[in-house]
Design brief:
CATH superfamily of the largest domain: Histidine kinase-like ATPase, C-terminal domain
Number of domains: 4
CATH class of the largest domain: Alpha Beta
Shape: elongated
CATH topology of the largest domain: Heat Shock Protein 90
Oligomer: single chain
Number of strands: 18
Number of helices: 18
Radius of gyration: 41 Å
Distance between the termini: 86 Å
């Protein structure tokens, strides 16, 4: 609380204006602490009493001058009152009086302050008392600021710990959910490939669609957690803008055809053909925006336009997504980018969704250094505009392939799968067997090491986390064990496909990484690519 003048005022009784200098000096000598005498000045109006004051310093200086005692000792002290005394209400803060003294040059810090209350005299505040109160107030304020700063830092630490705890919890939950998702998505894919009737295929497709929706929701939650913790990595790499647009068309065209809604994707003629940014995050932003547009567009079209524009000395990628849906009110626009927010209360039941897509799109855009805006589409519906700083990338280098004829071919052999989750192992085995491989599954790293010591395999798929030492133990057994598997490809199976996990697996010596939930076609393609690469490297070394 600020110190008020009334709290430090001295209740010194006023003396008449007829009091002589000698009498005033006597009063000062009798009280060494007295710095000034209030003087009651009669103005002739009984209802208006004026108060002035004579300071010890001013009286002493006058009496000490040439013939001072002769002149002022017998004269009334009215001649020695402070010319322009500072008079203030008792409720005035000390800090305010000191500030006015510093800025306006008042005499408060040299002659003190006369304190009044509703026109009545209440006392005097000396310069020393004023400075002391100000110093104590500043000290208390500094102490409180330090306490507040410590509390803020403690709160930040607690909030960071909570955020990290939530991130770890979500990562754990994500890992635990991804494992059974392998059973849902993987088995659904197997059923679709083996379905004898269209009805069976439709049922499998329904399971797969639901599983994919659950996976997207899980990925959104994990991304949101990493964004809030400031731990979402950005991978800047060059990419072709037209290829980026083509991939978007390939992804969304079937979905819009099913709704009988048109899809228009265009790239400005003067756009840079090759730019550098995080294509994966840009794809994720565009996915969320197009998904939102498709959700609310029942007829008409969704239009995606891409261009590059100069910004200062740099370059920016501008992506717009326009739809001909029902549009959004100005009130709803304000909150639409917030987490778990949707256009209205009926959106979730009518169109589905979690309300995370647009918030993640904006957070990712800002993570890339840009921003996203929402406006009304001229043809009805909404218009989202994403502006992200990018860099112009150089042309793609043409690398001539000198591989000999037949390089990159391989025969289907036997694969060792080290996986402790029965459903995941089942999906992997069925997918690889259907593709023509022979498969042996073991439940932990210890058994895997035993099999590697006595049998040769074409490749190994190993879960990163499992009993017996995990994937690292399997890797050591293959590379440095007594068997004949030191040079075969070893792929890591994990629900954690973050760049940190990929880098860790690469440093350990894994040939690649397969993310859970395992999808049969993706698994077969990844294994085939790995074996093709290994075959090319082997033949290249033989040349």
């Amino acid at each position: 609380m600020p110190v008020r003048l009334q709290e430090i005022a001295l209740n010194v009784a006023p003396v008449p204006s007829t009091t002589t200098g000698a009498a005033a000096l006597s009063l000062f000598l009798s009280d060494p602490a007295l710095f000034a005498l209030p003087v009651r000045i009669d103005t002739g109006d009984s209802g208006n009493l004026k108060i002035a004051h004579v300071t010890r310093a001013r009286l002493t200086e006058a009496l000490a001058g040439p013939n001072g005692r002769d002149i002022y000792a017998a004269r009334p002290i009215l001649h020695l009152v402070t010319p322009a005394p500072v008079i203030a209400e008792g409720s005035a803060p000390v800090a305010l009086i000191a500030k006015q003294a510093a800025e306006q040059g008042t005499s408060a810090l040299t002659d003190g302050v006369i304190v009044m209350e509703n026109g009545d005299y209440k006392g005097l505040v000396s310069p020393a008392a004023l400075l002391k109160a100000l110093a104590e107030e500043n000290t208390a304020r500094a102490r409180n600021q330090q306490i507040s700063h410590r509390r803020i830092e403690d709160m930040k630490t607690k909030m960071q710990a909570l955020a990290e705890g939530r991130t770890r919890f979500l990562a754990f939950v994500g890992h635990e959910i991804r494992t059974p998702l392998t059973g849902i998505l993987g088995v659904a894919d197997l059923l679709k490939d083996q379905a004898a009737t269209s009805e069976a295929k439709r049922l499998a497709e329904t399971i797969s669609t639901s599983g994919q929706h659950l996976e997207r929701l899980l990925n959104d939650l994990l991304d949101l957690s990493r964004l809030e913790a400031g731990k979402l990595p950005i991978m800047m790499q060059p990419f072709e803008l037209r290829q980026f647009a083509s991939e978007t068309r390939d992804l969304w065209q079937p979905k819009l055809d099913a709704k009988r809604v048109g899809l228009r994707i265009a790239i400005a003629r003067n756009a840079e053909a090759r730019i550098e940014s995080d294509a994966g995050r840009l794809r994720q932003i565009l996915f969320n925006l197009v998904s939102n547009a498709v959700k609310f567009t029942d007829r008409g079209h969704v239009t995606v336009q891409m261009s590059t524009v100069p910004v200062g000395e740099g370059l920016a990628l501008v992506m717009t997504v326009a739809d001909t849906g029902r549009g959004i009110s100005d009130t709803d626009k304000v909150r639409l980018f917030e987490e778990f927010e949707q256009a209205d209360d009926t959106t979730a039941t009518t169109h589905g969704g979690s309300g995370l897509g647009l918030s993640i799109a904006r957070a990712l855009t800002r993570r890339l250094g840009g921003d996203i805006a929402l406006a009304d589409n001229a043809g009805g519906g909404c218009l989202f505009t994403v502006t992200v700083p990018v860099q112009k990338a150089g042309p793609r280098l043409a690398i001539e392939n000198h591989s000999p004829s037949g390089a990159g071919r391989f025969d289907l052999g036997e694969i060792l799968v080290a996986e402790d989750h029965d459903t995941t192992a089942f999906v992997i085995r069925e997918a690889l067997v259907a593709a023509g491989w022979r498969v042996e599954c073991v439940p932990d790293a210890t058994v895997a090491a035993q099999r590697l010591a006595v049998r040769r395999y074409q490749a190994i798929l190993s879960d990163v986390h499992m009993p017996g030492g995990g994937g690292e133990a399997v890797l050591r057994a293959a590379r440095f064990g007594p068997g004949q598997n030191s040079s075969i490809p070893i792929l890591a199976l994990t629900a954690d496909a973050t760049p940190e996990r990929r880098e860790a697996c690469e440093k350990l010596g894994f040939s690649g990484l397969i993310e859970k939930p395992v999808r049969p076609r993706v698994l077969v393609a990844a294994l085939a690519d790995t074996l093709l690469s290994a075959s090319r490297e082997k033949q290249a070394r033989a040349i």
